[in-house]
Amino acid sequence: xxxKNVYVxxxxxxxxxxPVALELIGKARDLADVLGDKVVAIFAGHNIADQAxxxxxxxxxxxxxxxxxxxxxxxxxxxxxxxxxxITAMNPDIVLFxxxxxxxxxxxxxxxxxxxxxxxxxxxxxxxDGSDPKLEARKLMMTRPAFxxxxxxxxxxxxxxxxxxxxxxxxxxxxxxxxxxTGNIIPFTATFDASKFAVKLLETVKAEKGLVxxxxxxxxxxxxxxxxxxxxxxxLAALAEVIGGEVSSSRAMVDAGIMDxxxxxxxxxxxxxPDLYLACGISGAIxxxxxxxxxxxxxxxNKDKFAPxxxxxxxxxxxxxxxxxxxxxxxxxxEIKK
Amino acid sequence: MKIVVCIKQVPDTTVIKINxxxxxxxxxxxxxxxxxxxxxxxxMALQLKDQYGAHVTVITMGPPQADAILREAYxxxxxxxxxxxxxxxGGADTLATSHTIAAALKNLEYDLIIAGRQxxxxxxxxxxxxxxxxxxxxxxSYVAGLEYKDGKFLVKKETEEGYQMLEVAGxxxxxxxxxxxxxxxxxxxxxxxxxxxPVAVWGVDKVNLPLEMLGLKGSGTRVYKSFTxxxxxxxxxxxxxxxxxxxxxxxxxxxxxxx
Amino acid sequence: MNFGLTKTQQLFQQMIREFAExxxxxxxxxxxxxxxxxxxxxxxxxxxxxxxxxIPKNYGGAGGDHIMYSIAVExxxxxxxxxxxxxxxxxxxxxxxxxxxxxxEQKQKYLPKLASGEWIGAFGLTEPNAGTDAAGQxxxxxxxxxxxxxxxxKIFITYACPAHVYVFATMTDKSKGNKGITxxxxxxxxxxVSIGKKEHKLGIRGSxxxxxxxxxxxxxxxxxxxxxxxxxxxxxxTLDGGRIxxxxxxxxxxxxxxxETVKYTKERKQFGRSISAFQNTQFQMADLETKVQxxxxxxxxxxxxxxxxxxxxxxxxxxxxFAAETAMEVTTKxxxxxxxYGYTREYxxxxxxxxxxxxxxxEGTSEVQRMVIAAKLxx
Lengths: 338, 259, 379
Fold this sequence. Notes:
- The structure holds three protein chains of three kinds.
- In chain B, 27% of the residues lie in helices and 30% in strands.
- Chain B is an alpha/beta fold.
- In chain B, a hairpin with a 6-residue loop joins β3 and β4 (25-26).
- The mean pLDDT of chain B is 92.
- In chain C, a hairpin with a 2-residue loop joins β2 and β3 (147-157).
- In chain C, 54% of the residues are buried.
- Chain C is globular, with a radius of gyration of 21 Å.
- Chain C is built from ten helices and ten strands.
- Chain C is an alpha+beta fold.
- Chains in contact: A-B, B-C.
């Protein structure tokens, strides 16, 4: 069996291509260029074919479109059957999935069905060059955090055949869109065993707030234990609004029920790399730092001058965030008006 | 209702530190705990037990010391505990682990299998879905809420945008979020009794699989290398009054063209 | 000989430590600041079965031991001394005498309710003119048909305000001195019982310490705890157990201050290095750590003797004396290590130092403990 090409599971939701799909295509492009192979997107859904060109514009060479009414919404078994058939038919060298609630549900199911290994939540992907006698050339080296972000491990596949990884959203960079790029759109007909469809999707509910994915935000105003309560989080929201950002938080505030889980930054939450990360009342446990230390500019406000957050901050202020934030909001409102 | 909860003993990664000189993990004195999402899963099972009545069995794969989390599960309210242990299981990645646990689960009756979404030492979120696949069961992951009605589970699954409501009849495998099920504390009387209860110790004889599917040999991945990452160099820290602080922040934002 | 905790005790310690960190610690500063009785914590503790740790299961308890109880008070006090004394007073001072001296009827009536936390129990011995010298009791109980009529007042009653039931000493025959003291159980709401003023205290400010007043309060004879004239014995036995509770509280306060100081001195830099790197810090902290460990061994061995059914009166006095004085020393030095910050309420050592003081005073002052120890020595 000769496995070839770098495949990306191009996640869509309600027909909208997810940013992570484009990020993965961007990374797949780099890997395929090293290998001298093609980037192939697996695009599954219903009535989505018209968007296949978008994937090509961002770097895919081929797009395998699996269009079926069974795939209208993501449900584990339906998607597993479809993608399994694509993989067994095409023999990819590499398949990448977004480490989203979909990718992290689908990929392990596929890994078990295929009897192949899977590496989760990668932050770095490279191709081995054969310089190390312990590792043959052209293997996918998948690097990921472990032990709560304390350790980085580079994982390689131990079995012959397809190499699979999930990659955190926001970690890879998408390519510049090039509408003039051309590629092949290949329809693929999947056959379904409906007797296995045991799970029924009743409804999909969007949370009133939090429609914006914090990994997409350019500016994050983030609050921790030092902010304390809902009322003070309103102050952060006001600042975020003035500066055109979103509110996020540390795990403590999610555990306390003050913030939703989808706004949590850190090892068990999301990895973010905004242009500005304003950490308010966040002490900076290593789990939190793991999720935000790649941010372009980090400003931290904390009462405790020994807080570890100051070790990663570009600018640190020892003080009460609840006092400083409203003043900053007022000042910025004036500055931005100018 | 018969419920089996898969739990794992993990090092409390929140207290692991890096030796600043050698750059290695300091594992000494790091307590071993029940993985938080698994504890959420046990809570899910115990809530079902409280509401509808259920027999809750906990199973863990690990070294003999993993007995500790089974005692903890007893003190929280579990009815039966199984320790799956053996040298043959060592060095397993998620694929080999899931094969082992799935094979062990074939010895049990169940209407519902619960696993934590992910373990804090690996954060892979793979073993639950992989067990479901090996057993041919449907799965719902990221479960933050659950109701049982007319023989069916009404499951709330968290997503990035909000949540989904899904319906599924047992047997099914669900992976639980700690945030959805705030685990109860161990009960004092439960603690007093915990060590008087039996823990079934299962070895490789309970796992009807060829040895090459277990442990390191059965793994689909291997660790090529591991390393610790350095922390970013510290920036400037100022201890000033609020007004001065606002000024510093605003000029930094201007300098970096944020505003 | 084995100095370690049993597996059961270790598992219990794991639970209570997590409970203390997550449920009790976040409230500690606020409870102190506002002098508020933390009722929500009491409800949570009750649900877990913490209010009847060593009470047998047939009376609604958890069937554990006194070492577990001591660990519970220590771990709670490590983060909040107010919460520690709530558990201690309820268990040692109210439930224990009922368990030890109560009739079967009294046990069945009160213990399950107290163990489940449905009811909170308090204990009263001290009066304006009778503290260390118990024979000075002025609260009287006078027989009247099938009842007793109570008059007088008790002061410094830990959480008298929220309590549902009180165990307290009265004078039934002044001529007999200590032998004229008799103990009663009275439920809150009984006509003639009222709560007096609430004390404003230096430390353990959330424990709702109040005065309890009896004005022609009529209680049936069935409410007498122990025999007529046995009140002094009831009180002394009760205080023996109570002292292990208070020693555990002192130990917890000391440990809490050690934890805070280790953390602070590692982080705080002066003259270019952590203050924990200075030999002055290291030597002083080494001495304090040694004392805290010694206190822990005294506390554990006293609790162990109680569990084994051995006499432990002097052991209880010694562990309380030593743990209380250690708590005072450790917290005072902890404040010193924290410098100016330690004197502010930004850091918990300030509160810990205030909380520590009471452990040298209540359930027998350090001087009383020395009397008890000396009495055994020179008997």
